[in-house]
Amino acid sequence: MTNLTAVYVADLMGVMLSIVVLYENAWRFREQTVESKILLTLTYVLLIACIAESLSFTVDGMAGTFARIAGKATNSWLFFSGVLVGPLGIAMITSHIHCQISTIHKYFIRLMVVVGTLVLIFNLFVPVVFKIDSHNVYSRQSLYWLYIAIMYVFLTDGVICYLVSKRRGVVVRFFPVTEFLLPLLVGLVLQTVFYGVSTIWPCLTISMCGVCFSLQNENVFLDKLTSSYNRLFLDNLSNRNVKFRERKLTAMMMDMNGFKAINDQFGHIEGDMALRAVAEILREVVGDNGMVIRYAGDEFVVLLNTRDEAVVKEYISHIHEQLRIYSKKLNRGYTLSVSIGYSEFDLDEQTVEDIMNIVDQRMYEDKKAFYAKSENNRRE
């Protein structure tokens, strides 16, 4: 027997938490990044689902055409929301930790969404997922378990993406995967086992709050101009993260060539755009194989998850090439380029300061070689 009061209270909590997430993260949503768009979409899905769930329980067994239509519409939305939440959650995880998923993986996710959607459309005519009988009473049908399976598959998929990235050496950047996935698992199990309770959507809104709190903490370690990590992040990571200290890394120090000339000739706004462009290109090249840190001014540090010098040189070559392509495409009167110095990053034998001094000196040597080939003299 359904306890409507308990359902209303649980869903009301979900609605209130969703509204809090929307209000407190309004600034983030205005940024229009991929991650903020995913977060906004997911929050709205959960908000509507909490409202729809209460309505579905309210009209269950109620006489009349409205109750029948409302019962079909709300329950269809809830099942469809269950199909949407998984891909959105995976997209958020992979976007935040810069994990690239394969084309086959993407097609698999899309296939699951398409199948889930088509079966729900079919269910409007032939009840195979849920049924609203002649008395407008809801009941589960055989393919109800398909949607439970889909949610479990997506839940497992998210965990696998996280673990694979972690194993590859990616420093998982402030994303609380346990806090995100555990409430979902608990809510899913409870609502599956105990018929007539409301736990999935309120638990998911709790997950969203955990994600937002974690992302808020991350802002302390972000450079506001370039959205790269800042120097505090590097210091914090190396001092407190034991597993990070054990990794085999290469540190690269980069300094933009001719940055002062860009500021002098085109203005500081253009200089800021150039900094953002370099940071974005570095993030695209590095992907999930390292991280980008704005160290100071026009200096960036890239930490790569390798000590293979041949691989490091490939990354350096790719960075130079992408900067050339970007500059040619942009055609703003200057060419973006960087001087690079690199060295093994071994905190068991050296301090961060020692390593930064080494790569800075090597970067300076590379910069001297760059200007030796240039017809223009650099003015500090």
Automatic annotation (TrEMBL):
Name of protein: GGDEF domain-containing protein
GO biological process, one term: cell adhesion involved in single-species biofilm formation
An annotated GO cellular component: plasma membrane
Keyword tags: Membrane, Transmembrane, Transmembrane helix
Listed SMART domains: GGDEF
InterPro entries: Diguanylate_Cyclase, GGDEF_dom, Nucleotide_cyclase, Rev_trsase/Diguanyl_cyclase
PANTHER family linked to this entry: DIGUANYLATE CYCLASE DGCN, REGULATORY COMPONENTS OF SENSORY TRANSDUCTION SYSTEM
Single GO molecular function: diguanylate cyclase activity
Record domain GGDEF: where: 247-380
Transmembrane regions: 6-26, 38-57, 77-95, 107-130, 142-165, 177-197
Lineage, broadest ranks: Bacteria, Bacillati, Bacillota, Clostridia, Lachnospirales
SUPFAM superfamilies hit by this protein: Nucleotide cyclase
